[in-house]
Amino acid sequence: MSPRIVHNWEVGAVHVDRAGAGARYAIGVNGRLPLPLVRATLGDVLVFNVKNSLSKPTTLHIHGYFFNGTSFYDGADMISSCSIAPNTTFTYEIPAVQAGTYWIHGHTNHENADGLRGPLIVDRPNEPFQYKDERLFVFEDWYSMPFAERLSRSIEHVESPRSLINGIDARQAKELCLAEGTTYRIRLLNIASTAWYEFALENHEMQVIELDGVLCKRSPVRSVRLAPAQRVSVLVTAHAGPSSADYDRYTVRQYFPHLANQAEPPAHGADSQAEDIYGSNIVVKQASPSDSPLQRPSWNWHRRRYQQLPAFSDIRLVPLSNKDNDDDTDASEDSLSTPDRRIRLELGSGRSPDGRTHSFINGIAFSKPRIPAIYTALTAGGLAMDPRVYGEHTNTVVLKSMEVIELVLWNNSTMAHPMHLHGHTFQLYEYGCTDAGHDECGSKNMAFKAGSSPMRRDTVSVGPFQYAVIRFKASNPGMWLMHCHIDTHHAQGMAMLFAEAPEVLQQTPDMPLSVRDQCLLQGVATSVNSTSND
User: Fold this and answer.
1) Beta carbons of 419 and 230 less than 8 angstroms apart
2) How does pLDDT run across 258-283, given as a tens digit for each residue?
3) Is the overall model pTM greater than 0.85, yes or no?
4) CA-to-CA dists, residue 252 to 206, 207, 280, angstroms
5) Which helix (H) or strand (E) is 513 found in, with range?
6) What is the per-residue burial (b if ≥16 Cβ within 10 Å, else e) of 118-151?
7) Run of H or E residues at 377
8) Residue 449 and residue 417 in contact, taking contact as beta carbons nearer than 8 Å
9) Which of 32, 238, 42, 3 is nearest to 135 (CA)?
């Protein structure tokens, strides 16, 4: 029997002052913020016994997990299940079948933006990369007002957020303590609701080995930029600074969507676009002569090497082979070179006559269905293959089992959008500039294309006036959201639904009664015959 890692979480309101932004309403676990680190080993079962002490519904979502065969635990409110009603309890039982760096967050009413978010790591018993220790950097943004209030205001009336590193005011960033000659895995997570972050270790080479839970071949870089929801692991071997009294530093640069250009990384050392820059010393405990019999390269050698390192580019990474990703059910050594269907998704926004801002995919602002989409798929019979049955404003696309889908994400706006697909990783095929050819992107002829073995991830950043081409195989029957992970954009409608292989989903075992019971407690129908999604 697999070991069960049990967490008893009471989700409730807390009042906190984080990063000097002023005391405000927030959402914590067991009366505390930040959330605790959740850690398990491949093969464990993660159990979350959740008591909802809020006055409104809540859910939990493990970002990046596929939930293959258990999509009812995905946590997307009114898509894969109903939410957890106030003053009730619900248990998630999630097999830890994917190793890597993930995070867990609320997925009802954008509660992650109010604090319900934290890191989740699943270890491999046999890591293909060798390192002695780990360090963790979790980046967050924090606004002075709760999400609902921020959403109701125009952007010009919302002040910029503060930043947190590992739950602490980024302006008080702690020193990074390492040992000379020791190799570390540094896990970087951006769990912010708006901000991009760029991480660098001065005069240290970082080697990227993981992207959104997917292992990749070592790739040396001088810095790593992460959009909201993205994760990266790097290896770094520590070396001493220029003198015993002079330290190298690590830096964390904060960017916002109108400055986050994914396709063309900034020039080395360029920080003119960064809104804020944080960091602290890299304190390296020097090895004694007996511990390091071989002469190490000098600090000047490391400095020259650092200045020659390339910029980070996710599309140029190469995944490890299947045998090294044996826990990755989306793994594929071969590129999905011949898509069965190409779908263009145009990302945009605008204002309605009442002055409200709406965000769109293909001109449709998403709204949740009246019946959870998974119950519509299970009870509609043959009609489940008709996207209209899920409701017009769910912007649903029905996928046939095992077909290869190419998505062209087309962004003709001045804002970047980190687009996340539930239930899958996807292969990165191409970035480039849209026909608009604005200065925000650069040359309209610029394009970056993947090699013969495209990298996979679950969240792609589409920069201003840029496009991205991604592909995935419809191998995971379920109801899967795709949405922008800037929470205001998601709330304003930048989301859509993939109804994946509903004819296969109808043949799967029944869902746990506890899932249906939460719907009944809230008066939500669980059959398409009893009400309509229109």
Assistant:
1) no
2) 765 554 443 333 343 557 899 999 99
3) yes
4) 14, 17, 9
5) helix 513-521
6) bbbbbebeeeebebeeebebbbbbbbbbbbeebb
7) helix 373-379
8) no
9) 238
